Amino acid sequence: MSDIQEFSFSTIGIVHSCYRQKFGIPRQPGLVTQATARIELLPPFNRLDTLEGLESFSHIWVHFIFHACLQDSWKAKVRPPRLGGKVKMGVFATRATHRPNPIGLSVVKLGNIYQDEKKVFIELHGADLLDGTPVIDIKPYLPYVDSITDAKGGFAPISTVTKKVFFSTQAEEECTAYQKKTGREIRILIEQIVAQDPRPAYLVKKEDKEHGMQLWDINIKWKVCGDYFEILRLEEK
Ligand code: SAH
C-alpha cells in the first residue's frame, strides 16, 4: 500500500462565468442551460494540442476546487437543500461544497474551443461554477459508461422546479435595456435561475424578504409572492 497521503495539483485553468457570488448558482450543472461560462487554460497548459479531439464530444467533466470555501471547515453530516434543510446526511452522500477535499465535479455541455492571441478558451453551457473557480482537470464525458439509465437517485431522484417567475414592468424594461447594451440574454437567465429557488432552507420561511443576486455587473432583486417569484428590478453595481 502506498503511504502517500498528500497530493498537490496545479490549476490548469480558471473559470470566467456570469456567477459573481455563490448565492443564485444552481445546485447542479445543466439546470440553467442559459448560463454561459468559459475556462481559460493557464500556462503551461494554454495550448490547443492539450485539447485535440475534445471537440468531438458534446459534454465534458470539469474537476474543480470550491475555492470560495477554502477558509471554512467541513462537517461529517450536512443538511442537503434537497431535504429542506431538515435532515442531515453524511457529507460523502451529498454534493456539499464543504468537504474534506474541496473538489467539485460537474458534467457540462461543451461549446467552442478557441484561441485568442496567447489565450486558449473552452466554452461551457449550463455550468454551476463561480467566476474565478480553479479547474484542475477536464475529461470527456463518455455516454457508453457515464450514462446509467437505471441508476437510483437516492434522496434526490428528480429535478425540482418550484414556482413560476414573473417580471415587473420595471424589470422587463431593464432586462431589455441590458440585453441591448451587452448582447447578454439576461431575462431568460434570470428566469431559469430563480425558478430553481436558490434560497437556502432557513430563508424559505421569510416570505417578504427581498433577495439580491449578482450576475455579471448587475444585482437582481426578487422576492416570493405566494406561489410565484417576482423579479423586481435590476441594479447596476
Ligand atoms: N456539480 C458540482 C457542484 C455541486 S454544489 C459537484 O457536484 O461537485 C453546487 C454549488 O457549488 C453551487 O450552488 C455554488 O454555490 C457552489 N460553487 C460553485 N463554484 C464554487 C466555487 N468555486 N467555490 C465555492 N462554491 C462554489
List the SSEs and their pairings.
Blueprint: E1 13-17, E2 36-41, E3 59-65, E4 77-78, E5 89-90, E6 103-116, E7 119-125, E8 134-140, H1 143-146, E9 164-167, H2 169-182, H3 186-195, H4 201-204, E10 210-215, E11 218-225, E12 228-236
Parallel strand pairs: 9-12
Antiparallel strand pairs: 1-2, 1-8, 2-7, 3-6, 3-8, 4-5, 6-7, 10-11, 11-12
Note down, in words, how this protein is organized.
With 237 residues, this protein is α+β, with helices and mostly antiparallel strands. The chain folds into two domains: 13-66 and 102-144, YaeB-like (Elongation Factor Tu (Ef-tu), domain 3, Beta Barrel), CATH 2.40.30; 164-236, RelE-like (YaeB-like fold), CATH 3.30.2310. It is built from four helices and twelve strands; from the N terminus they run E-E-E-E-E-E-E-E-H-E-H-H-H-E-E-E. The chain has a six-stranded antiparallel beta barrel with strand order 1-2-7-6-3-8. A four-stranded mixed β-sheet has the order 9-12-11-10. Strands 4-5 form a two-stranded antiparallel ribbon. A hairpin with a 2-residue loop joins strand 11 (218-225) and strand 12. The longest helix has 14 residues, at 169-182. The mean pLDDT is 94. The protein binds S-adenosyl-L-homocysteine. S-adenosyl-L-homocysteine binds at residues 22, 25, 27-29, 66-69, 95, 97, 104-106, 128-130, 133.
Number of helix segments? 4
Ligands, ions, cofactors: S-adenosyl-L-homocysteine
> What is the third-level CATH name, the topology of the largest domain?
Elongation Factor Tu (Ef-tu), domain 3
Q: How are strands sequenced across the largest beta sheet? A: 1-2-7-6-3-8
Query: How much helix, percentage-wise, in residues?
Result: 10-25%
N-to-C order of helices and strands: EEEEEEEEHEHHHEEE
Which spans have pLDDT < 50 for at least 5 consecutive residues? Answer: none
The profile of the biggest β sheet is: 6 strands, antiparallel, barrel
Total number of domains: 2
Amino-to-carboxy terminus distance: 54 Å
User: Averaging pLDDT over every residue, what do you get?
Assistant: 94
Radius of gyration: 19 Å
User: How many individual β-strands?
Assistant: 12
